[in-house]
């Protein structure tokens, strides 16, 4: 093991932060690590919006489903796939292709993960906020996002004021396939479901009785954010 692997394996979402500020130097290091992430064809189609205005933070917290830590975290960053910058450079750029949406999502995710890993390596914690997509129209207005900019997720950062348990992930026996795709091993899944049931029952906060399979069944039994395709098209993404 080494410090990098230790940091990765110790990951947990932090939703309660102390009042300690993040210094400009520390934030600069985190952002530079984010920017250093891999980029498909060196397109660099990501923008990060740092939101510091308390009122805007409160509004985003409400839009995200009442996630108060959006307002209380030392820093809140919004990660966006961004081809508007490219259009400014090349006004006749051919945009709107579905492949570009995929590239934007992948590159943005890589940059966000780099930022969080860097923060955790410095003793900070954080949590990604997919809830910013609950009302993308209002978020677009709040952040003055032009066409060809797509807000994908937020990231709260700060010094942890809690130590939640590490949530068990799917084992390699289910997640890693050898040579070709393989069906789920039901016995391995049953063991994981029991592990998750035990975890939910014993964790220090928000205990519940549910297997992972039951959780997935609940989530995927209905359409989530049915307005998203229309919003994507409005922002100029995946129109062709």
UniProtKB/TrEMBL annotation:
The keyword NADP applies. Keywords: Flavoprotein, FMN, NADP, Oxidoreductase. It comes from the Bacteria. SUPFAM superfamilies: FMN-dependent nitroreductase-like (SSF55469). InterPro entries: Flavin_OxRdtase_Frp, Nitroreductase, Nitroreductase-like. GO terms for molecular function: FMN reductase (NADPH) activity. Its EC number is 1.5.1.38. Pfam families: Nitroreductase (PF00881). Residues 10-159 form the Nitroreductase domain. The keyword Oxidoreductase applies. It is an enzyme of class 1 (oxidoreductase). Belongs to the flavin oxidoreductase frp family. NCBIfam families: PRK10765.1. This is Oxygen-insensitive NADPH nitroreductase. It comes from Shewanella intestini. The gene is nfsA.
């Amino acid at each position: 093991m080494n410090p990098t692997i230790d940091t990765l394996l110790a990951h947990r979402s932090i939703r309660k932060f102390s009042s300690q500020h993040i210094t400009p130097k520390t934030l600069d290091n985190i952002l530079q690590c984010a920017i250093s992430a891999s980029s498909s064809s060196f397109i660099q189609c990501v923008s990060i919006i740092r939101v510091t205005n308390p009122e805007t933070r409160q509004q985003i917290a409400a839009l995200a489903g009442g996630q108060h830590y959006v307002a209380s975290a030392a820093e809140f960053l919004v990660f966006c796939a961004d081809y508007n910058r490219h259009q400014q450079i090349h006004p006749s750029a051919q945009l709107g292709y579905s492949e570009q949406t995929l590239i934007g999502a992948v590159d943005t995710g890589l940059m966000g993960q780099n930022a969080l890993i860097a923060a955790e390596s410095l003793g900070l914690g954080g949590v990604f906020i997919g809830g910013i997509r609950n009302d993308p129209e209002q978020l677009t207005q709040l952040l003055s996002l032009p066409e060809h900019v797509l807000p994908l997720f937020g990231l709260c950062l700060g010094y942890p004021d809690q130590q939640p348990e590490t949530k068990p992930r799917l084992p390699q026996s289910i997640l890693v396939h050898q040579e070709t795709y393989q069906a789920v091993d039901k016995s391995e899944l049953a063991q994981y479901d029991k592990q998750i049931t035990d975890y939910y029952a014993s964790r220090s906060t928000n205990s519940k009785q549910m297997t992972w399979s039951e959780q997935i069944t609940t989530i995927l039994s209905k359409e989530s954010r049915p307005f998203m395709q229309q919003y994507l098209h409005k922002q100029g993404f995946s129109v062709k």
